[in-house]
Design goal:
The structure is a single chain. The protein is of the alpha/beta class.
């Protein structure tokens, strides 16, 4: 994988070489960071304080040795990146960079193009992200939409950082909910013929079942009226489930979400995977029989009581299916497994981790992302949008009102486990108040600048064009490129923490810093051609990074708006 940030890597490489020569073992990684306060240089490192204890020396003494090493490093000298290096108590090393460093950073981005920031963390190891996994009992609601955006963006980020990613959707097609779906649809079918049939307790009342029942009537007429209701449930369950799943897939396609695999729960039953997983638990003393049921020793893992796996009537619990399913995931060779769940499943995490460990796998390789509720707002007040689901606001309704770009961006603006307020009015605004519009406008503005530049008969500057260093005397130009150099670190953080909101926050900040740069740095009408070309290349680098961020978020990067 390509994507190394050469200018920054040169600084960090020199720092690590010097620390190694001073006696620190190889299992370390030191780097220069952006300082927290102005006046502390362009980069700072606390490496002296980190390693002073290991080397049994004073951090101030060690800091000076590192500074001397940096000042004498031939590669750093040749680069021309260092203006000066200073020591600050109690052991900080502050570096002041030249304009040549920032010019080099722009060259790195232009040369690496869409690969810029693609740090290799995964080493092409297999990782599975299972998300959405809504039961096919009704349309997707906005909670599913937030989970879909988070799961899909996490998968994109992991792929960008070197993981071999598989996206999976788990379909519960074998439980009581599906049975209730079949009975609810049958009741709607009877209703069309004026014959009463009660919808079961915990059944489904949404208008969408009337449409499905009408389809069945159109195709089969009154065929099922002449059959015992119990004999009809299987057909109605399967027909309604398939129809609803088709609708779910269409909504996800509209939302730019796709899956590599749809895994059905019935596969676990039909291929004996639940049975074999239960045998494994029993053979390894993690399960026992009592009162005719099979129990999992969850108290061995800190649970308040043991949990039923197989009921006395021989029917497996959801937990038994989850144990078998997650065992199957690891059996398929995934190095890591990530599940995206609703926040109401928080208490279930420890139990599934226990099941994973009991089934012979490492629970530390299993992560759960929790999705909190979404509050839709209009004019600052909670919205009760019309919904055909009978209970929830459908994702498709939101997409029809604000569009996929706005929906995805808004869903990804906060940590997934924090509650989200989604203002529909703001999401539709074409102004700087709308964050997705603000970011997309920055990308479109740069595209417009490039078109105008070429329409004037000028050729775009070469990717290796060395930007005049005086350009970076302007604080907005310097801040902008400095922010671009931090993109690979933002990507690392987003990948390690499974946090797309890091990218959303970064690209919002980048758009704002670019707009400030544009207001103080004339590009098209700058009389000095070298200055104009330098500023143009900075804008080109910004365009690359904005497009990269939006791609990871699943949002379009328009060239015109």
């Amino acid at each position: 994988m390509t994507g190394e940030n050469n200018s920054v890597d040169l600084l960090n490489g020199a720092l690590n070489r010097i620390i190694k020569t001073l006696g620190v073992e190889n299992n370390f990684e030191a780097s220069f960071e952006h300082p927290k306060h102005t006046g502390q240089g362009d980069r700072a490192s606390n490496a002296a304080m980190r390693f002073a204890k290991v080397l049994k020396t004073n951090p101030q003494v060690l800091a000076q040795k590192i500074i001397d090493g940096l000042n004498n490093d031939s590669e750093l000298k040749e680069s021309g990146y260092i203006q000066k290096i200073e020591f600050a108590k109690p052991g900080f090393i502050n570096i002041f960079l030249t304009g040549k460093f920032f010019s080099g950073a722009v060259q790195d981005i232009l040369k690496q193009s869409e690969n810029y920031g693609a740090v290799n963390l995964g080493g092409d190891k297999k990782i599975q992200v299972e998300f959405v996994s809504a039961n096919p009992t009704g349309p997707l609601h906005i909670g599913h939409g937030r989970g879909a955006a988070v799961g899909d963006s996490v998968a994109r980020i992991l792929k960008f950082t070197g993981w071999d990613v598989q996206r999976e959707y788990y379909i519960n097609d074998a439980g009581l909910q599906m049975e209730n779906l079949g009975r609810s649809t049958l009741a709607r079918y009877y209703e069309l013929f004026g014959r009463p049939l009660e919808i079961p307790e915990n059944g489904y009342h949404g208008e969408y079942l009337k449409d499905i029942a009408q389809e069945i009537k159109n195709i089969h007429g009154d065929k099922f009226l002449n059959m015992p209701a119990e004999d009809c449930v299987k057909f109605f369950r399967e027909y309604a489930g398939e129809k609803i799943l088709d609708g779910i897939k269409k909504d996800l396609e509209k939302f730019r979400v796709s899956f590599d695999k749809y895994f059905v729960e019935s596969y676990l039953h039909e291929h004996g995977l639940i049975k074999s997983a239960m045998k494994f638990l029993k053979d390894n003393n993690y399960a026992y029989e009592s009162d005719g049921a099979l129990w999992f020793k969850s108290t061995d893992f800190g649970d308040d009581k043991d949990r039923v796996l197989i009921r006395a009537n021989g029917i497996s619990t959801y937990f038994a299916a989850d144990v078998a399913y997650h065992k199957n995931k690891f059996d398929r060779g995934f190095e890591r497994v990530i599940d995206v769940w609703g926040a109401d499943h928080h208490g279930y995490i420890a139990r599934v981790k226990a099941g994973i460990k009991a089934a012979g796998n490492d629970p530390e390789k299993f992560d759960v992302l929790l999705i909190q509720l979404v509050n839709l707002l209009r004019a600052g007040k909670a919205v009760n949008m019309s919904t055909r689901s009978g209970e929830f606001i459908e994702l498709n309704e939101v997409l029809n009102e604000v569009g996929t770009d706005a929906a995805r961006f808004f869903f990804l603006m906060r940590r997934s486990d924090s509650q989200l307020d989604f203002d529909l009015d703001v999401a539709k605004e074409q102004s700087s108040n709308n964050p997705v519009y603000y970011v997309q406008y920055a990308h479109a503005r740069i595209s417009g600048i490039l078109r105008e530049f070429e329409s004037r008969g000028k050729n775009l500057p070469d990717d290796n064009f060395e930007i005049p260093p005086e350009i970076f005397d302007n604080k907005d130009a310097r801040s902008l490129v400095d922010l671009l150099t931090s993109y690979p670190d933002e990507i690392k953080s987003a990948s390690k923490d499974l946090s797309p909101q890091i990218i959303t926050a970064y690209v919002l900040n980048l758009a704002g810093v670019f707009h400030a740069f544009y207001n103080t740095n004339n590009i098209l009408n700058e009389p000095d051609e070298k200055i104009s070309a330098g500023r143009l290349n900075i804008a080109r680098a910004v365009k690359i990074v904005i497009a990269s961020c939006l791609k990871l978020l699943g949002v379009n990067a328009p060239d015109r708006m």
